[in-house]
Records
---
Amino acid sequence: MQKCNTWTIPSRGLSNWAVTYSEHGAAQNVLKLTKVAPLDVKNMGKTSVHVRMLAAPINPADINMAEGVYGIKPPLPAFAGNEGVGVVQGCGQNVTQLKIGDWVIPADAATGTWRTEMILGEDDLIRVPSDIGLAQAATITVNPATAYRMLRDFRHLNKGDFVMQNGANSAVGLAVIQIARQMGLRTINIVRSNRPDVEGTLRLLTNLGGDINVPDTFVNSHEFRSILADIPPVSLGLNCVGGDLVAHMARSMGEGATIVTYGGMSKRPVILPFDLVAYKRIQLKGFWVSQWYKTHSRQERITMLEDIASLMRSQQLTSFYEMHDLDDFSHALSAHLEPFKLRKVVLNLHPPDRLQEHDARPETDYEVFETTVV
């Protein structure tokens, strides 16, 4: 492999900006786009890597971290952002596994990815392919990885088995449908009935490969149980909503089934009555992808990410996103916080300087018009 040089490639566009927070509170109040000092890349360590960040998503975990209610609490002040992709600009003389131009992602959460550049150790970065698309590379470590692990780590599933999930229109839910399909599994997908255009959402799930797609009001019905009577017992359920819906799902699943909780969008607890726990032996488990990364080897992480990247490259795993320039962060944050958001908001961390672009264009590019001043 070509050895990474110690010099760095000059970058274009807006530079040395970051989203930071110095206290916990509502994201709109505490997250600030701030100009920061340039990094001292000339004096970085021998195993350090200078990374120009390219893109990073806004995830619910990022908001929870700013609010101070997430499982990880970086010391304040902190850079925001847990996930993202960058390109290697230069590195220390002892770096051997990376070279200039490689796309890389942070190996751990809470790295502070919403900034234009960073310096990390070589072991704190994982190379990702650059042919899967910028937004896909920026979002590969959380949502698709969560879906991938939950489908593999909790039950032994055979081809043709069904998996039941709520929040099926979430980023993880959409990934579950598509990854399950490639594994030969079938899915029962539940969406909240209070969202706008429920029918359109259900059609989307069908188009992505979902097998049985229903609103949550249908789950505790005789008709739903009649449908399930004609398929093998469901042994795995995935929950990111909480509340009474989880008990309704449990009643529709097979004896000894496992329900994995990875989120709580309704902010209501997961409660099962005695009969489902004692007689039906329903098991409740939790999953947090950040913890999985902590407890598994670097090679295990790389193998998983390579599998996911392969699905992305072959267009068997797609996602829905919208790009927002970092210098318009307040608008991007507002877009993320919109209720019933389908598209993932992804920050373009190195947008061009729009004013400079404007000034560089010839006057003939702009239409001249005259009007009467009243």
Note: The CA atoms of residues 23 and 30 lie 6 Å apart.
---
Amino acid sequence: MKRYVFIVFVFVLTSGLLMQSTGENRAGQTQKITELHATVVSVDDSGLIHTGVVPYGPQFVDVTFTDKDWAGQRLSIKNHLMGKADIDTPCQVGDAVIVGVKIQDNKIMAGKILEHDRTLWLSIMAILFVSLLVGYAGMIGIKALISFILSVWIIWDVLVRGLLEGKEPIFLISWVIVLLSAIIIFSVAGLTRKGVSAFLGTLLGLGLL
């Protein structure tokens, strides 16, 4: 019972911190860069150069945004192709794409096509993965899933952001390791002697005890 209480507590606490950090990022911003979903409505390939299998050069693309706040708005984008199939995103009319945009004073100032929109297939794969994990492992699978989600968030929103803000890397990384160890160990073993022993062993390994 204790392990379940700990999981719920950590999940609620981390969710609160996530919402707080998101609110802090949005507060007072007059300019921001974000990603929006769009549909390609016209393509001009007159600037492309065909010297091999993969063309390169500027591709002029018009997109219409489909996100709720920007639905129906249209933007012209110069889609630079480098002749590298692994990083280029050539577009055709009707393609669903993800566009990185710069918004200033609630207006879209510029945009760049990042990739084709694979949200549907990624969602299907995620649902299938979660279903198989929970169906096979039961409660252990649920705990592993929660630990995975929290770990990804802590690494991305705490560690990466802290390093980009210039915080002391050794102390920040040590603190993140301790936090991740606590979440993973106690979510699996619970608040038991075995869990405490494993956590103290991690601290000893880091030289914090």
Note: The two ends are 29 Å apart (CA to CA).
---
Amino acid sequence: MVLLRKIVSKQWLLYLKKEGKDDKMLNILIKDDDDLKLAHKKYETFTSDKKLRWLAIDREKAERDKIYHENMSKWNKAEVMAEGLKQGIEQGIEQGIEQERLETTKKMLAEGLDIKMISHISGLSIAEIEKLKP
């Protein structure tokens, strides 16, 4: 049974490879096999009908477009996530720098440095520094 399936499968594979080409091997293949004859007849009917051919081409194009758009969607999501991560890191760094500047300003206040000097060093306004006083 397995051997028979392999032979049948090889015949079908050869048929599919040769179908649509002007090939003597195709004629030999379909000569004694009713299933292959039927498949060949349906193939000829289908390919001789322009409307059916265009429908098949359109369907194939739609399938390719669908796969393309699904993949683009995945790629776009990955790009958006990467950009979001990059922006998050940049924002975190900026917040860290600002936090360090405020902590340094508080230390300068605790050491009793002049507010104008602290403003000059930290870049904060005197009003901002006043708000940091304990």
Note: The first helix runs from residue 2 to 18.
---
Amino acid sequence: MLTQTFDLAALAHSPWKNGGGTTREIVRWPAGSTLEDFEWRVSVATLSASGPFSVLPDVDRQIMLLNGDGARLRSNDGSIDHALSERWKVFAFRGETAIDAVLMGDTSTDFNLMVRRGHWHGQMQVVRQARHTGSAPAGVCMVLAGRWRRAGEVLTAGQGLWWTSEGHEGDEGAMIEPLPGDGEAAPALAWVVLEQVPPASRAEAGNAAALGIGPGRLSLTSKNNSLAHPAGVDSLPTSASQEDRVRRC
């Protein structure tokens, strides 16, 4: 198993070209992939201005507010009207949905998960008890509050690790557990687990969508709607070092 630790404070901010915010990418898998062909991605975004989110076809997204007043998310088709204002509460949506975000106050920061639909399943949650990093084929965890210990190393807010067993044998992971604190905030951990969809299942889902089902001929879009388990908010690249949220008329 490949394991990599990180410290959010040490990650570079990639500014969006339109000036609406920045992204700190924690991991994009597989290594060397682009934002057009990644399998899964976890990042932290800072929203400093209202504007539309990027449209990412075939990507499921999950997002949760880390700090700030949050933003109201509204889709162009009226299917989404959500106040992203409760800290650590996960909201899921489809990447192809055109969404505008209106800040509800000052700058806000959020934690994001994106997975390639039909290739990976992902789940984001906040946990307060010990977890094992080898309990899923891949995953990410980041300390939200308190102190956590893994393999003798103590992690604090903004620190964490990601792991994957894809193409890596050996290390089976380790426990990460909260440490008691005197007067500190109750321990909390952002916990993301990822599981790859078997190739056979991908083919079956694709064939069913292509052939259509029943008198109404279930379309690819409706098939995907029934299977979706969405994911987070982020931005699209415009250069090697800049990102931009796509603006829609």
Note: The first helix runs from residue 199 to 211.
